[in-house]
Amino acid sequence: MKQQSTQLGTEKIPRLMLRFSVPAFIGMFVMALYNIADTFYIARGVGTTAVAALSISFPLQLIMTAFAAAIGIGGSSIISRRLGQGKLKEANEVFGHVVWLVGLMSVLMVITALTFLDPILTAFGATADVLPFAREYMSIILYGSLFQAFMMSSNNIVRSEGNAKIAMLTMIISAGLNIVLDPIFIFVLDMGIGGAAIATVISQAVGAVWIFLYFWTGKSSLTFRWIGFFPKPKVVKEIIAIGSATFVRQVAGSFMFIAVNWMLVIHGGETSVAIYGIINRIMMFAIMPMFGIVQGMQPIIGYNFGAKLYHRVSDTLKLGIMISTGIAVFVWGATMLFPTAMMSVFSTDSTVIEDGGEAIRWIFLVTPIIGFQMVTGGLYQALGKAKISFILSMARQLIFLIPLVLILPGFYGVMGVWIAFPIADILAFLLSLFFVWRDRQKLFQKTPSQARLRQAKVNG
Question: Considering its fold, how many domains does the chain have in total?
Fold first, then answer.
């Protein structure tokens, strides 16, 4: 087993969090920056209707990546615990199943989406003006989904074995290349929204090749091994059980987008859809650092839980909550102080800027509590607690936000859509708090003193 894996159980937690979260933070930051740049270039180079098309297309992209994310995170949770138990052969077996499942599901999803693309986009809220842009964009993006799926799932595996730097470089290479290629295809080659899609596919392909070479050249504790045409049902079941929380969260996010887009089309029109498309990119940029913290702590928690070093699980959890909450407070301050300035980066339309500024303040109203909620979801997933992780993943978007988005606009119009977000965040936070409080004795164990550790060794 590589040293990068065994250090998960021996290094000091703050140093591990720094080593794991900073690369994850940087990688996620670059990915978020790509989303911001993509929207900026399309808004400036194509127009507001094209931005609305991005917003309409986003749910389909979420569904496409939901399978890869679920399989990758489910597999990485198992792999980190197997490595913690010293079971390298079993970890390799799980890795083989991850690759097999991602390949099969990606091909099936791409074929289905291309076959029914227009009906899907129309069902997601595309109007007659928006549909041509959304069709042009997604008909190209779907081909890159195969690369995206492999890259996303494999990157989670890389983190699970303790190599956060490689995971960071994967995201930087892919997203950084996309940021460079976007203006070339959109402005220089004058290819519009289709050019943005081509730039994305090329970047995803390069990222997929990079991560493939990492495993192929023996730099990983894991290796590619053919598992046969039929995977083991027991392994598949365990991967899906843990990854289902991620799948539900992303699919729920897709349904949430559809509900929001439809309510905005009905009560505000295409301009409101474009506003939400911009705010969503800002939101992703804002919460990506917190995702970086969660991704950084998950392999530490998974490994130490597998090694029965429960006090290290507790120390990691407390540090994760503290850092993510600090980031959330900073994000809240920025969005409350400079909402219109953020909107003006993407649009010169005064209506988009003013209405969008008000919407940002509502959507980010209770951001300081989001960090705790995100860390809690990542915690139960890393521990392999599939049921709790599943519930927490459904809570914000599926259980709380979608009903609120469908009900409140009937009373408050477009404003009802915006105020649904903070209400859902509060309810999801309270649910997360309930589970953590219930399990507090297991989750918050004191770090044993050196004297107690020496005595334990003597007694052992």
Answer: 1
